[in-house]
Amino acid sequence: MQEPSLPRKQPPATPATGTVVCLLADLPDGGGRVFSFGPEDDPFRLILLRSGDQVIAWHNRCPHFGQPLALKDEWLILKPHTTLSCNVHYARFRWNDGVCESGDCEGESLTGVPVTVRDGQVLIV
């Protein structure tokens, strides 16, 4: 007899529109930072990457295994303005579009989170 499958736990929701993530000045050009929102035991994790005045946000979740790409800023594996990599399985994703260009999830993509820069702040839109 086959056991019934358990429902998959859904990730927590993206922070509300208008949520301030950080100041643009807190993001190094060509660098990134990780952020968490919500309950400590099941947060929504976000990675922000900066290229000049442009900020790109990705849900901090590798499509290969569902784990965060990095849990701390210092654990981010970046080639500035070019790629970021998962520090668990080293899948490499393109900076601008989140597509995995090498690794176990090649061809899959990170999930983008819409952000904008307004008055020197990075906000969820």
In words, what does this structure look like?
With 125 residues, this protein is mainly β. It has one domain (27-124): 3-layer Sandwich (Rieske Iron-sulfur Protein), CATH 2.102.10.10. The chain has strands at 20-23, 32-37, 44-51, 54-59, 77-79, 83-85, 92-94, 100-102, 115-118, 121-124. The strands form three sheets. Strands 5-6-7-8 form a four-stranded antiparallel beta sheet, with no helix packed on it. Strands 1-10-9 form a three-stranded antiparallel beta sheet, with no helix packed on it. Strands 2-3-4 form a three-stranded antiparallel beta sheet, with no helix packed on it. It is globular, with a radius of gyration of 15 Å.
Seen as an oligomer or otherwise, the chain set is single chain
**Order of strands, widest sheet:** 5-6-7-8
CATH superfamily: Rieske [2Fe-2S] iron-sulphur domain
- Category from helices, strands and their pairing: mainly beta
Q: Under CATH, the topology is which?
A: Rieske Iron-sulfur Protein
Beta fraction of the residues? 35-45%
Largest sheet: 4 strands, antiparallel
Note the run of SSEs as H and E: EEEEEEEEEE
State the CATH class.
Mainly Beta
Q: What percent of residues adopt helix (DSSP H or I)?
A: under 10%
Low-confidence parts lasting 5 or more residues at pLDDT below 50? 1-10
Q: Total number of β-strand segments?
A: 10
Q: How many independent structural domains?
A: 1
Number of helices: 0
End-to-end C-alpha gap: 48 Å
Mean pLDDT across the residues is: 90
CATH architecture assignment: 3-layer Sandwich
